[in-house]
Write a structure and sequence with these properties.
Layout (H helix, E strand, L loop, with lengths): L2 H13 L3 H31 L15 E7 L6 H9 L8 E8 L5 H7 L3 E5 L7 H11 L1 H4 L4 E4 L5 E2 L3 H9 L6 E8 L6 H24 L10 E4 H7 L8 H11 L4 E11 L5 H32 L3 H11 L3 H15 L4 H24 L4 H5 L4 H16 L17
Parallel strand pairs: 1-2, 1-4, 2-3, 6-8
Antiparallel strand pairs: 4-7, 5-8, 6-7
Helix pairs in contact: 2-8, 2-13, 2-14, 8-14, 10-11, 11-12, 11-16, 13-14
Amino acid sequence: MRVDGLCYSVAKEIGTISPVALIIGCIIAVPTAYVVLVTVYLVVVTLAAMLYRRPRPVDAPALKMAMVIPAHNESSQILDILGDAEKLDYPKNSFAVFVVADNCDDDTADLARGAGAKVLERHDLENRGKGQALDWCFKTHGAELEAYDVIALVDADMVLDLGFLEAMNRSFQVEGVQVVQGLNTVAEPGRHWRAAIGYMSFSCINHVRPAGRYMLGGTADLRGSGMAFRRDLILARGWPAHSLAEDAEFAKQLLFDGIKVAYNPDALVTSPIPEQHSQATIQQERWEGGKRILFKTYFPRLLRGAVTKPGIAMWDALLDILVPPLSVLGALIAGCLLASLLVHPVLILVNLVALCGLAFYVLMGLILTRAPLKVWLYLCAVPVFLVWKAPLIIRVLLGKVSSGWQRTPRDSEL
């Protein structure tokens, strides 16, 4: 077809669209382009995650590991994780447990000390937060940690898989690996609808994305707990990230220095998802507020890095930070789809494809993590969760939530 004939056909097609529909089409073109970009990225990452292969066992000596557990008023749970550490399938003379008792006004330190852990007590009410506590630990107690090859970090409310350290050991036997993130997921996902939906989210965010990004040549990022570092790296840097998203922030800083985080889902840690409204609100506000701060701080830097230092890892990190919370992405696609019904069949098709891409990402997350049957049944509760979370997301976007660290109350405290 000649160019002038093509232009005539396009003009004729546009001419058949009403002015109102044309205006609506122009308005939704930008969010539609955004959701298509994001869902295409998620589909590519999901396909890569399906090809992920775990590090193979190697005939090598066990590295000496220090497990550091930051704890703030965790007297109700500290003995549980220390009991898990006692049962780890790893040579007893090759690891030690350090508890950073951070601004505790209960008996966390005494309980940990009585259980045989090495306790480091910090009292600094001016600089509260997990990142600040870890920074203090590595900068002031480096001499005590020098005897170890690897330093692993696990939160005090976690449940440790017996093979956690052995899996980390396998990952660090791979040449060039300096940082490893394990799989951080939900304990007892079938217990409650919030736990099941949390498991769905963690399956996507904490497994599909790290596995896929790592396979594509990017960084797996850090996911809050169940991670490990070469001793020299962490003692030289401390923990320089102190925001609500201190883990992801540190991963970005490492990436700018050319250090990528490896991933091993066999290094498994789990934790319960809060079931009560007050607990869930505090936790979700902290998580989503952290993502907002992270985007505001690092999107410009990643964009600049992708342009000035182009490479898979930098472009991957840029695209990853563009991915909104699943609830927001789903709402955007649904809104664009409804608006496109007033415009043109092509836009309807485009948004349906985006919706299918999002569904593929979520369903493959559940399949790859072998989600229990109850989690699949709780998919019907997703609309309830979206209605509950919508006001929270709006508050976060408007900056109406606290930017300071708040600990989620434990069940025993309520």
